Amino acid sequence: MPFQTHAGVRYFSFESLDSSVTQALFTRQGGVSPAPWASLNVGGTVGDQPERVRENRLRAFAALGRDPATLFDVWQVHGVNVVVADAPHPPQSAHQQADAILTDKPGLTLFMRFADCVPILLYDPVRKAVSLAHAGWLGTVRGAARAAVEAMQARF
Hints:
alpha/beta; 2 domains; four-stranded mixed sheet; three-stranded antiparallel sheet; 3 helices; 9 strands
């Protein structure tokens, strides 16, 4: 899992996944936020200015060649709720509370923030479905990964 860099934005991509699955884990390098968020802060709930968070997200999307209008994200709550994404999340609408997102829509970009929590990416190569899950210690104990797998099995 080598580092890649685009316009100063540094990230990892898993080479073992199907090349049709665009995915990345971003480092904190390459953004515009000052300390204490330095520098690629994409979390809008930690006190950073919304304009900087927006610019950082745009940089992350540009690094992967993804259109920001394809974004689907959730309000992460350290639980086991799973949502299905069929269309982008409307920018001004309220976020659903969940810690896993699944989709079989290749045009969508699933987006989560992890800090010191575990990112879980599941891929079903037969159904061409993916799930992105967030599991901190509490989500791990509660079964966030299991919930994501079970939801994929039920849906796809």
